[in-house]
Design brief:
single chain, alpha+beta, Transferase(Phosphotransferase), domain 1, 3 domains, eight-stranded mixed beta sheet, 13 helices, 23 strands, globular
């Protein structure tokens, strides 16, 4: 029985539930091309069973105090594509978000090396471990066979147990993670590596398992990772990573030729861009900027992007700019990654995403750059100054903006501050721009003695409009927000 008090349940109540059944239709799932993911596959030194995993999870304490509302599983349980599978897993693992350390499992836009399907991160944006999902018809252990046994028996990289484990291990090693998760939803394996590249894999945790349940195992794994001071070993040097990958490819070339990436247009373009970059490199000027859309090299660092009809007629422009210094990740969510950095003697914020793998985020950043261009007269007054927008090395879409201060989440705002914020939004509205995402995280404050200034940021969801009703509703939304922050 659930220990319910006034409709509340305990963390034990939340995690003791088994996961609902999902309907899988492999015939509807596109086979896909795993070349881009396989490039970071690495072979562990050894793969053994994590024998104490389940007993340790069972012995872990759970709070019985009824403090929480009972979270729900995803209603739609049919899975036709791998994206559907990611969404179901992500939504169901959200059940543990209310519990310490309030971790979320979200889609990743890409790590330093590769792009796993999901990433588990703490409430403050700290990345805990990657999650790689596989369709059931690609990975399934039958009977009582455990993963190390299946791994040892597997002869092909691209099917069965060997390829997926090497893939998640490659993500872990190349990005400095100690922990990782491999799952088909119905079967899940928790992975840990040591500094000698030895890997232990948990027994298979099925979605129907009752003691401990999958949710309880996932919660324990999140807490174990969060509390482990050595959970992140640091991202290795790129030359070291290149050496590992070169050795891996040489080792696998004769054994498994179907794993080797086919050399398509993307690979040819990237190799060409990299070659140009190497010829232009110097000690302090090492970034080549190009604009790449629809298979053509076109206009580079323009703040107002041309429409699709004129893009193909424009010539290629190349610009070399100074490299960033002290690049530190400050935000990693569902959209673009944000970094603080030093650039040309200025403190700046860098927003970027993978130009190849995240076309929707690229469009969002392009739109944001266009909004900054339209609001050029307001840059430095109520929005940041946009310094650069473009594609770096043909790989990453980047926006570079002046650092304008910290958000107002923890700020105490007096009536004068609130009026300044209202005025800033009014100036943006007067230019025909609806912000579209009014919240404290998107309002920055800068104080200089008794003087204060405020700036709106993050225009990825904004729109151009002259609809006075929509603009007035957003102004009222801001009023309600400011009223709640008194």
């Amino acid at each position: 029985m659930f220990s319910v008090l006034k409709g509340r349940v305990s963390e034990r109540d939340i995690v003791q539930r088994t996961l609902p059944h999902i309907t899988i239709r492999p015939e509807d799932i596109p086979s896909g091309n795993t070349d881009s993911k396989r490039q970071y596959s690495l072979t562990p030194r050894s793969v053994t069973l994590w024998p104490s995993f389940l007993d340790t999870v069972r012995a872990s304490p759970l709070d019985d105090t009824p403090l929480y509302e009972m979270p729900s599983f995803k209603l739609s349980r049919e899975y036709r594509t791998e994206d559907d599978l990611h969404d179901i897993f992500k939504h169901d693992m959200e059940c543990i978000h209310p519990l310490h350390p309030n971790a979320r499992t979200v889609r990743t836009r890409g790590l330093t090396c590769g792009k796993p399907d999901l990433i588990c991160e703490s409430e403050d944006g700290l990345e805990l471990f990657p999650v790689e999902m596989k369709a059931k018809h690609r990975l399934e252990l039958t009977g009582s066979k455990e993963y190390p046994t299946a791994y040892a028996e597997q002869g092909s990289r691209t099917q069965g147990a060997a390829g997926p484990l090497k893939q998640i291990f490659g993500y872990m090693k190349c990005n400095g993670f100690k922990y990782g998760v491999l799952s088909t939803y119905e079967q899940t394996w928790f992975v840990k590596r040591d500094d000698q590249d030895n890997v232990v894999v948990s027994p298979t945790v099925r979605s129907t398992r009752e003691n401990p349940t999958m949710l309880r195992c996932y919660l324990w794994f999140v807490r174990q990772t969060h509390d482990d001071a050595e959970r992140f070993t640091g991202i290795p040097d790129q030359q070291e990573i290149d050496k590992w990958l070169k050795k891996e490819r040489k080792s696998e070339k004769d054994k498994d030729r179907d794993w080797m990436p086919r050399r398509g247009v993307k690979e040819i373009m990237q190799s060409g861009l990299q070659a140009i970059t190497r010829r232009l490199e110097s000690k302090d000027r090492c970034v080549l900027w190009l604009r790449l859309l629809d298979g053509s090299l076109i206009n580079r660092l323009t703040l107002r992007y041309p429409d699709s009809q004129t893009r193909s007629n424009q010539s290629t422009e190349r610009t070399v700019i100074p490299a960033f210094e002290k690049l530190n990740l400050i935000w990693y969510g569902e959209r673009a990654r944000s970094y603080s950095a030093s650039w040309q003697g200025m403190d700046v914020i860098v927003k970027k995403c993978d130009a190849w793998k995240e076309p929707s985020v690229v469009k969002e950043l392009e739109h944001e750059a266009e909004v900054y261009s339209v609001l050029q007269a307001l840059q430095g007054r109520c929005i940041p100054v946009l310094r650069v927008a473009g594609i770096a090395n043909g790989i990453e879409m980047i926006l570079v903006m002046d650092f304008m201060g910290t958000n107002i989440v923890q700020e105490h705002l007096d009536c004068f501050d609130q009026e300044k914020i209202r005025t800033a939004l009014s100036m943006i509205h007067n230019e025909g721009v609806l912000h579209g995402d009014i919240r404290p995280q998107n309002i920055l404050g800068r104080r200089d003695g008794h003087d204060s200034r405020f700036f709106f940021i993050d225009f990825g969801l904004s729109s151009f409009t002259t609809d006075k009703v929509a603009l007035r509703q957003e102004a009222q939304e801001l009023d309600a927000l400011l009223e709640s922050m008194k």
